[in-house]
Specification:
By secondary structure, the protein is mainly beta. It has 2 domains: 59 residues, SH3 Domains (SH3 type barrels, Roll); 60 residues, Roll (SH3 type barrels), CATH 2.30.30. The protein is built from 2 helices and 14 strands, in the order ααββββββββββββββ. The strands form 4 sheets. The protein has a 5-stranded antiparallel β-sheet, with no helix packed on it. A 5-stranded antiparallel β-sheet has the order 13-12-11-8-14, with no helix packed on it. The chain has a two-stranded antiparallel ribbon with strand order 2-3. The longest helix is centred in the N-terminal third of the chain and has 12 residues.
Length: 154
């Protein structure tokens, strides 16, 4: 089995660059934000750009590029578009990506179910994810833990 430096030497400059960046701590985490109110997504960072569609309140989006007034985002369906910075909130949400997700009282599979959420339901992120689980809160106030692989927006 090869260690990281050996892999970098073996697979060339591109991998070596990636290994060097990772070793130096320059690797960036993916950033997600949530839409604060219904907002228009554009094809370019301008109000004169083509209006593509409206994204709903609470929808989580992945930040790709951040400019002064505009942010290039990936929305849950996968399209990449521009949104005005002012349309994004600091409140975080996630969107259920599983057909049906069980939200549990504690972050374990054996814990009692609190509620179930269907695909595309938006849940408020109540705490940072840990050990494969995220604490979430439903709009009706019920809260619990969901597997991170059952949501989009983390």
């Amino acid at each position: 089995m090869l260690n990281a430096p050996a892999l970098c030497r073996r697979f060339g400059a591109a991998l070596a660059l990636a290994c060097g960046l990772g070793a130096s701590g320059i690797v960036h985490a993916i950033e997600y934000r949530s839409v604060s109110a219904p907002a228009i997504l554009y094809d370019s960072p301008s109000e004169k750009g083509k209006r593509l569609f409206i994204v709903a309140t609470g929808t989580p989006v992945e930040v790709i590029v951040s400019l002064d007034k505009w942010i290039k985002v990936r929305e849950p369906a996968g399209s990449i578009n521009w949104i005005e910075r002012s349309a994004l909130s600091t409140k975080r949400t996630v969107q259920v990506s599983a057909t049906r997700a069980v939200i549990r009282k504690q972050p374990t599979e054996s814990s009692a179910a609190v509620f179930e959420a269907a695909k595309d339901v938006l849940l408020e992120l109540a705490d940072a994810p840990a050990d494969g689980w995220a604490k979430v809160r439903h709009a009706d106030g019920a809260s619990g833990y969901i597997r991170v692989n059952e949501v989009w927006g983390l």
